[in-house]
Fold these 2 entries.
Entry 1:
Amino acid sequence: MINIQNLFLRFGERVLFNTLSWMIPDGSRIGLVGNNGTGKTTLFRMIISEMKPDSGSVDSSKNQTIGYLPQDLYELEPVPLMLFLKKQCGIYELEEKIKHLEHLLSSPEENPAEHEEHLTKYGNLRETYRIKEGYSFESRAMSIISGLGFKLGDEKKNCSEFSGGWKMRILLSVILLNKPDIMLLDEPTNHLDTESMEWLEGFLKDYAGTLVVISHDRMFLNKMITEIAELFNGKITVYRGNYSYYLAEKDKRLEILEKELEAQKGEIKKTKEFIDRFRYKNTKAKQVQSRIKKLEKIELISIETDNRRIRINFPDCPRSGREVLKVENVSKSYGQLQVFRNVNLNVYRGEKIALVGVNGAGKSTFSRLIGKVEEPTEGNVELGTNVKMSFFSQETSENLNYFRSVWDEVYGISSDLDDKGLRNLLGAFLFSGDDINKKISILSGGEKSRLALLKILLRDSNLLILDEPTNHLDYQTKELFQEALLNYTGTMVIVSHDRFFLDNLADRIVEIRNGKFHEYHGNYSYFIEKRAAMQMTLNESDDLAMRERGNPKKSAKLKRELKSDLRNLEKEITDLEDKKKQNDNELCKAEVIKDVMLTRNLVRENRKLEKILKKKYEEWEDLTLRLEELE
């Protein structure tokens, strides 16, 4: 259990936590939510003792292990991925100690007293290694990193070669491998594609420990979480249900609070009127003082600003021709890397199309091609009659005028909004009060992205191409933006990892897979259902590979042979691993320890087995790669 009592934390004039108390029982599955800047990440850092409060306490059992996934990237040690995982999970250190003792135990010069001492240590280390699942570590690690989107062979790549998003996946892999008692995950889905998210959800369903998650992914919270803890005004409010339950229950509580606030305002008004009326009458002095004290003791009801009551509307779209966008025989390459080959797509007026696929499939590349930011290597991208296109990506913020203020940058773009309407819209995009006077040059990356997105919303385009538009939006702004897109009368092509956002928005899904387009005429849930059904009945990539090879029978025969070789090899590996485990068990027996020659022979045999296993593992990787190429 984590027990947080009366936390108080102040940054300058701002009180972040105000006597915050929160109890997290063992086995809880909690979503920690709240607007940007309310202190969710700070609270996580206090739980792991990375930060201290001004007062209050955070207590947890000393025996409990905590795995923390930060939102900000930490630099990783520049070593191969598998070695990094072993080091972070304590496996590498054990293996090195075991190897050192094996070397000593196999030495003929070792005296009997030292031999017995080393053998006892060796047995203890082997037992620790077994308990920490060291024997199966590499296979477990391969399963986890594969689920998170890494390819076979990536385990040998240096950690420094991976981009920031992939480094975050590596850190997540470490946590999943360590199986801590408590997981604190800060935006775990930010750098995952939809397939990796679905894999992570499946993995976490079987996790028996305590899970506390900060996430803007509504579908993830609905699937994983049974309780929502909302951080607002320096305190925690708990809702016993998933995220959808929380939203419905919060609306009910807001209605009650608003009524209580109105009643409180009425009471305060009457009290003040009494004080003002009788302040200078001696006969009422006692009653006046009593009411003044009563007024001072009233704790004002605080209600979170509900931005959902603000509406975001796109300007009326000029009508375009029926065919809005035509992609004909398009290929795109960067040097030797071919992203697409000979793809075609027609987009018609009023469609809302989502581009999906694993990271690196080419979604952002394709959005830049149709957004006219890049040119295809081959083929044509043509806009239809009277199409006015607006393109947004995370790089769009680079086109802002850094010498202007936020207000100056957006003022006058739309003739449909007066100053008050524009201020409300800026507030919905988290620019409130004096924030609108900030120079763009001092804004954070997320603030610049939000401002660039807002500018696109104000323009009178009839084709929107949006690449990850919701990355820096909070829950409420995301919902406002989604509602605006639903009411948008133009045409839209969107890239997003937010499945709930896509599910309620897109009416056609285009999956980019292996440089080809696969279309699904429905929403995201329809796409998932159809893709799962296809994988169960017919592996489409198998069929494609056989057609391309020109000799389906030969290809099928080769695959059968490789699969047979793989099964035989896996049996060999299992037998060798069993033999090694058998030797390890023998080395733990007292009667074996006393026999110096027997122990030396067993240790030497294990070292030979390890060398053979290493070669067998390499053969297994080679066979698996060859099978993947055929599939």
Note: The chain has four domains: 1-65+180-241, 246-304, 323-537, 553-630.
Entry 2:
Amino acid sequence: MSATDRLDLTHRPPVAERVSHVTRHHGKQIADPYHWMRDDTRKDEAVLAHLKAENAYTDAVMAPLRPRVEMLFDEMVARIKEDDDTPPARWGSFLYYSRTEKGKQYRIFCRREDERGTEQVYLDVNREAEGHDYYRLGAVCISPDHRLVAWAADTDGGETYTIRVRDLISGEDLPDTIHGAYAGVEWASDNRTLFYTTLDKTHRPYRLHRHELGAATEDPVVFEEPDESFFLGIHRTRSGRYLILHLGSNDTNEVHYLAADDPTGDFRLFEPRRKGVEYAVDHWGDRFLVHTNEEAVNFRLLEAPLSAPRRANWREVLPHRPEVQLEEVEPFRDHIVVVERCEGVGRLRVLAMPGYEPHEVRFDEPAYTVTPTVNPEYDTGTVRFVYQSLCTPETTIDYDMQARARAVLKVEEVLGGYDPGEYVTERVTAIATDGERVPISLVHRRGLELDGDNPLLLYGYGSYGSTHTDPSFQSLRLSLIDRGFVFAIAHVRGGGDLGRPWYDAGKLEHKTNTFTDFIACAEHLIDAGYTSPGRLAIRGGSAGGLLVGAVVNMRPELFRAAVAKVPFVDVINTMLDPTLPLTVIEYDEWGNPSEPDVFERLLAYSPYENIEAQAYPNLFVTGALTDPRVAYWEPAKWVARIREHHTGDGVFLLKTDLGAGHGGPSGRYDWIREMALEYAFLIERCGASF
């Protein structure tokens, strides 16, 4: 690595102002020296000046690597097929698909009447995004008669959406425009009535509204959820017959339903909420399907007659199996597709009428991801799913559920001569401090020597029972792997990787298992010769950023560098403030610090409060000014406090996007450029060669 490839460490970060802010809780004082950075309006000039100064510092430090960033960006773009489309999906008399065009940031939504029919572009997101630095879709919803499309768009990253409607025959936009909505929108069967949700003062979707096209009156509130720990959502059943009003906290659900052809009717309660009981409802033939964890920690499937769906009439279809989590249920006219998880790996099971005859769809790789994808048609014997692994690009498959036959429709093209055979994916196991076996999925170039001299990027999340850490393919990642990196995923407790008990063992009073599991994974990879502390980097975002913040406090010497994306690191101050978005609903995940024992527990691992005088690994941290999920001041305060206390020679960079939200840039090229910047930082800090 040449001198020009090194960070410019002659610069110094801006000096942060110190304003004393001390609060007292349960007999303890909590000092927050950077509380001044909090600004709920996002308009305070001093705060904006600080964030801009941090961005300027990051730009200055990274300046010597700018040519390398551009090189990585060009390399990443060169691997993707810029002019691309999705396999068309039949729905009614149309084939629906989307495509991308070279040089354009956003997708283009299209349809045609048959394989050789004329293409109709019904929503070009590039056109809609003109004049906006940020544009993200929340929903694109076609009316049942295929004549209208409603879509919700967020133009600043704050996750407040505007809903618009377009006539697909004339191509004209209707005057109906709904401001201040949330992302979801659904049609009733009359093709004139829309249902949508709006937000309360804490940014919680809590009201359901009904809108009739062309109506001059104010849209009536159909339902309001007063409990601040519940979010409200709306969707149609797979059959299209019913509208489902779904109320959910982190551990409790309640469903209300309405015939889709009766939009002015009253939603009926399906089953009253009971603390800790989660359930979802779909329609299938003459019955409802109930997917629930009641008396089944890993969930089970029941049915209820349409005519009398009360709980006394429920009948079990798939019993609870302790070793298998029932994750998702997708009904079709004559079949049900069930997504299951066993030993940390997803699989598909198909149940056929009349007697729920089962069969399994099997795959060969040791670690992979399989998920149903776009299946708009209910009256079909074919299910479409996507298969991928850390080595295998995204593969779209149509599966004939009767013939049990697969047809590969598309394999993601990786340009530049990608050969999966040149890479190896493995599944190894680390032993946690309490003896639990923690899986690690990893990928590297074939022929890698386990001599401890390889740079390695270890990714983790471990919250909300999420399974988004399942091993999936990403061509951008090759820019690390082809430079000698090992890429690894730690399937730590708190995620849903090994079923619901795995989640429960990493939340509330068990949260520290998430952090110690991750450390055990890092230690295992070092002991097995995959890497060494001087070449080990870690990455996590949002709640995964909490993971990063906790482990660099606990074991800073174990890591060379870390990337923390919009990290949830100011745990105590956030959870003590119920006026912030998400705080109340998060009590089920982290606990309510108004309770003394919970307060002590959160205080023990909150990254911001546990910073101390020690040598921290190099940090690349991102925030977003309009982020409603993790406020921009969390990463800003965290970086400032680490700079104040660190004793080593690490560099700590903060990049705040002043025009985006929690998910980062909305355009695909902007997103790739941000990845190139992070990768350049990791390559340089871990001593790899460009």
Note: The two ends are 7 Å apart (CA to CA).
